[in-house]
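Could someone model iron/sulfur cluster with this protein?
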Amino acid sequence: MRIEFDRDTCIGMFQCTAEWDAFQRDEDDGKADLEGSEEQEDDIFVREVPEGEELDAKFAARSCPVDAIAVYDDDGEQIIP
Ligand code: SF4
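Reply:
Sure, complex below.
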């Protein structure tokens, strides 16, 4: 499972940080940080979701009010949002 975080879209509501601890608050920027991710293109951060953390990652994605977080299954199909 892969997760993609659009940091430009993020408005710093921090619901995601309560769901999965890979998302951390960046109070200075007023945005979340996705730990362990790589910046794939401008402000788009991606990483694999480790086994056992899939549910937390999905909840984080669902909790985002501006759909800044997308989750893809291993076939590359987008499952959230
Ligand atoms: S829930 Fe969405 S808007 Fe809020 S910090 Fe997380 S990614 Fe950003």
